[in-house]
Amino acid sequence: MRVFWILFTAEWRHFKAARGLVLLTSLVLLVGLYGIYYGTTEIGRQRQHLAELPALAHHNVEELKTKFPEPADAGEIGYYHTTFAVHHPTPWASLSLGQRDVNPYYVKLRLLGLQGQLYASENVNPAKVLSGNFDLAFVLVYLFPLLIIALSFNLLSSEKEQGILPLLLAQPVSAALVVGAKLAFRLALVLGLALVLSGVAMLWARVPLDGRVGLWLALVMLYCLFWFGLAFLVTGLQRNSAFNAVALVGLWLVLVVLVPGLLNVYVSAARPVPQGIELTVKQREEIHGGWDKPKTETMNRFFALYPQWRDTTTIKEHFVWRWYYAFQHLGDQSVQPLAVAYTDGLRQRYELVNRLNWLSPAINAQTSLNALAGTDLPTHLAFQRSATRYHDTLRAFYYPYLFRQVAFTHADYAKEPTHTFTSSSEISTTIRGLGKLLVSLGVVYAAGLLLFRARPINPR
């Protein structure tokens, strides 16, 4: 053990003397801190935006009270009144933004057809969507492997090339102890850096101190250990430093860039999904066509869905609001199969990626961190289902006014239902991701040990 600590201390002195490595490690630390800042700032901006929505809804109500000082037709209120379905983040979202940077975190709703509103979102910079937002999860998953490669590509090869290894092994020290001490120092450095960044992020984001803290740290540590395992495996080939560097960077490109890209192409082909714009266009065509259809035909189709309103007064006027909202809803019903196919297709794609992400620990780690933060695709789909139920509740609130022809008063605004939805962590997905990382870890280290056993270290 004393020899081990002597070697460990020597590695620390060598690291301090290598200014390039010190600079690189410091740069990764600064980039990680920026990732924490960006993630917390982005979630803070979203929270601020969500906090302003009730005031916007209240302002809209005050405008309507001014516009309609007397009891009014509920159809006009439903047409002009705006409310919001909101998706609140968990504190963990600051550490891994996931889908919150590409999908809307609130939906502006009126009593009109749902589908066109549900898939409407603000314009965003496509270049930003392509590159993604910068958060701590991005630094840990994509940049930390590069730091590990920079620290470990010449684990033994540099000593060989400088002629130091024969002198070192001539002492009463084994090659396994030398490799173990070198790996242990690098592990301590990288894992210490990862733990410091994770700790700072958790304190900054004020995450609750529960079991999710352990899951996050376990994911980060196993992922880093996997990349050290690859360095260990490549070292076992006993080639020169240039070969090791090219091999490790090549593995990074394959596992972080190539495999995810190919997996995306395969999943898109294996699980085709209807385009959201196709759904919206078809719904609008159905709604616009409702103006030209006989009112009796429209209302009979509506009453087949809602027989409780069949006894309402026959429509004789040229325009009446209950007819208007009836064909708005029928427009939603006409694209219901497309909407179901769209959400089912997205869910099937996600499930297929989850089954295949063992091919790339980077995808596995990113998916697991997003699931832990409640920023993955299933959470977004759950928010959309919640927004759909809220729209159904709004219709159920307004229909008695519309079909019983009850005037809408100022006091009725306070009775209108509201909506809120808060993300939750997908713990089961995270635990499955941990299991896959453990398997990958075991395979890599077992292969490295077998390689070292088959090819004992040659000091020359």
Automatic annotation (TrEMBL):
<feature type="transmembrane region" description="Helical">
    <location>
        <begin position="163"/>
        <end position="180"/>
    </location>
</feature>
<feature type="transmembrane region" description="Helical">
    <location>
        <begin position="433"/>
        <end position="452"/>
    </location>
</feature>
<feature type="transmembrane region" description="Helical">
    <location>
        <begin position="20"/>
        <end position="39"/>
    </location>
</feature>
<dbReference type="Pfam" id="PF12040">
    <property type="entry name" value="DUF3526"/>
</dbReference>
<dbReference type="InterPro" id="IPR021913">
    <property type="entry name" value="DUF3526"/>
</dbReference>
<keyword id="KW-1133">Transmembrane helix</keyword>
<feature type="transmembrane region" description="Helical">
    <location>
        <begin position="213"/>
        <end position="234"/>
    </location>
</feature>
<feature type="transmembrane region" description="Helical">
    <location>
        <begin position="246"/>
        <end position="267"/>
    </location>
</feature>
<feature type="transmembrane region" description="Helical">
    <location>
        <begin position="136"/>
        <end position="157"/>
    </location>
</feature>
<keyword id="KW-0472">Membrane</keyword>
<feature type="transmembrane region" description="Helical">
    <location>
        <begin position="187"/>
        <end position="207"/>
    </location>
</feature>
<protein>
    <submittedName>
        <fullName>ABC transporter permease</fullName>
    </submittedName>
</protein>
<keyword id="KW-0812">Transmembrane</keyword>
